[in-house]
Amino acid sequence: MGEITKDTPYLPPEQEAIRARCFHPSGSFIEFRKEEIEQSIPSRFEQMVRKYPERIAVRAKSSSLTYEALNWAANRVARAILARRGEGEEPIALQLEQGAPMIVAIIGVLKAGKIYVPLASTLPHSRITYILEELQAPLIVTNNHNLPLAKELARDAQDLLNIDEIDSSLSVENPDLPIPPDALAYILYTSGSTGEPKGVMHNHRNVLHDCMVYTNNLHFCASDRLTLLHSCSSSASRHNLFGALLNGAAVYPSDIRGEGLSHLATWLTQEKITVYHSGVVVYRYFLDTLTGKEEFPHLRLIKLGSQQVSKKDLEFYKKQFSADCILVNALSSTETSTVRWHFIDKGSEIAGDIVPVGHPVEDMEILLLDEDGKEVGFNQIGEIAVRSHYLALGYWRKPDPTRSAFLPDPQAGEARIYRTGDLGLMAPDGCLMHLGRKDFQVKIRGYRIELGEIEAALLNLDAIKQAVVVARGDEAGEHRLTAYVVPSVNPRPTMSALRRALAEKLPDYMMPSAFVVMDSLPLLPNGKVDRRTLPQPDPERAELKKTYVAPQTALQKKLADIWTEVLKLERLGIHDNFFDLGGHSLLATQVIARVRGTLQIELPLRTLFQAPTVAEMAAIITQNEAKKLDEQDLARLLAELESLSDEEAKEFAARESVGSTETARQ
User: Fold this and answer.
1) CATH number for the 547-666 domain, one of 3.30.830.10, 1.10.1200.10, 1.10.10.60, 2.40.50.100?
2) 147, 315, 605, 621: which has the highest count of C-beta atoms within 10 A?
3) 395: three-class secondary structure by DSSP
């Protein structure tokens, strides 16, 4: 692919100009030097404590902690853990709510030289149980609020540490344990969308490298106030958590799952938040709560990730936020941290429906690979692979998946390669487009398509706020597309209207067979859509513009039976459009074949396109059959005339003439 893919941290001039404006207006930025990643997280944090002891470190809904107070609380947690477990690297599970208690526990576990493993309380009980069984964590750290659930999960009382009951006489001095940069810092469990969940392991050096990249490019400083909207069980949480606490800034956790988003605009303004970070789905829901009159004078940066950003997302940003606010679209994964980003301001123009993820991040090289593991060229789709020294160490107690996912450097270097499972396309200028998951690439009727392209087309419809498309296999092994949409208008759009709007953008083979209109999409703790819990389409009948009318005649009933069998529906109305019900040209051929086989009626394929409802097709069949009868009568009449003598023919003509005259008089 050329030298541009070697991914030196290069930005084109227009990108560099936007990034150069990413500074706090009154704060003082201090560069995070490369040599500073060769230490532990507690070591860097304690430097901030000494420098900013009275500055707010954590401000939650019901409590605030200065750097000094946070350090003291974390030291007590660390000493309580050490009293129970002694020194040595081992995983410690955290069953705590989003907020100050979770942050205190994370820092405390790290200070004790242990590995923190946050558990989202929103996960199903069986899933948490599976994680704990695989993790074999000797201790669960919890508090009074989460104690009942923690007791259910713990094997016995000795496995619990309630931080609300820690002995106040424990020393608040730093434990000062020697923690090397290559020691494990945390294990975060992936969503497990394919098979069992996997615990992704990162060391202190990786976290500090990630913090260095964010600090130096987004210019975090001690005057910044960063949101923490992601669950701490999500890898995205570390960007803001450590981006704040390792730079003397303040982190503002908010439990949007419990509290909703209606308060978020007021909260951002009142707390003078400077950096907003969330997944794209949460961002869209947040925008939906705005009236257009809100102002965010302190917000200097909006960072999005975890899903494709659409052109409409960009338009909302330009409409709602100030000219001093920069939008950053980033590409990251739990195994790699951030590998690409794109800087956007009010003057940025994007070609196409998808906002690019942009340009290189330091020490993260992008490769686009084909099915054989060979690099593809510019403007060709390939699987995104990342070559770096700062990848996850692997999956906890899963050596085989680790070997499969993390490959040795073919150049015999110390770096490794991680195949992300995401698809991308590299422009000749080195700008990367993220095209969604590789496993979201499906073949429909012989065409290989990207579900992300259909989702982008849906999201750019004015009537749609959220959209996700899945491919489901039927009994014959064929994939059928189902679109799940959250409307932004009321009354909500019908399937007919959505199909007509998409028909202007997408080919027939990319048209969803079914649309499911929902009030909201189910989310995983990391903010991504939980595709496994999306409901099956209603087999009864799609939400169409036409009201249901049952078959009235025997012919209509037979046609309706054929259509429901082909379309895999339980019923349909005689005025329902075949193509609005998910029909397409290949299914149309099945309908025509079954009409021929069942009714012994020959119809050209174009009939279904000209008459796409049962009522219309029945009318055409009736007209055709009547015409056939008339033609048969005429043929019999001509044959009879030919058999008559001249005298008989004259008599027949005279009789027909008199009959016609009498009819006219009547």
Assistant:
1) 1.10.1200.10
2) 621
3) strand
Length of the chain equals: 666
CA atoms of 595 and 280, how far apart (whole Å): 48
CB atoms inside a 10 Å sphere around CB 120: 20
Q: What is the pLDDT of residue 192?
A: 42
Q: Phi/psi at 163 (nearest 5 deg)?
A: -70, -15
Determine how β-strand 365-369 pairs with β-strand 184-189.
Answer: unpaired
Query: Range(s) for CATH 3.30.300.30 in the chain?
Result: 445-533
Token readout for 89 is: 């690297």
| Partners of 426 in the β-ladder | 432
pLDDT tens digit sequence for 613-646: 999 999 988 888 777 766 666 666 666 656 655 6
Using the structure block, give the residue that is written with the tokens 């430097």. Answer: 47
Overall average pLDDT of the 185-201 stretch: 75
**Spatial CB neighbours of 434, under 8 Å, sequence gap ≥ 6:** 308, 331, 340, 354, 356, 357, 384, 422, 423, 424
Among the ranges given (84-93, 167-176, 500-509), the one the predictor scored with the smallest mean pLDDT:
500-509
Residue 14: which pLDDT band, with cuts at 50, 70 and 90?
very high
Q: Where are any strands of DSSP class E within 492-629?
A: 514-517
Residue ranges, comma separated, of all CATH 1.10.1200.10 domains in the chain are 547-666
> Which CATH number is associated with domain 445-533?
3.30.300.30
Three-state DSSP at 81 gives helix
CA distances from 118 to 109, 201, 526 (A): 11, 13, 12
Average pLDDT, the chain: 86
Distance, in Å, from the CA atom of 195 to the CA atom of 402, rounded to the nearest integer, reads 14
Cα–Cα distance, 223 to 210 (Å, whole number): 20
- In this predicted model, what pLDDT tens digit does every residue of 484-520 receive, in sequence order? 999 988 888 888 888 888 877 776 778 888 888 999 9
- 140-142: strand order across its sheet: 160-162, 140-142, 91-94, 115-118, 184-189, 199-203, 394-395
pTM value is: 0.73
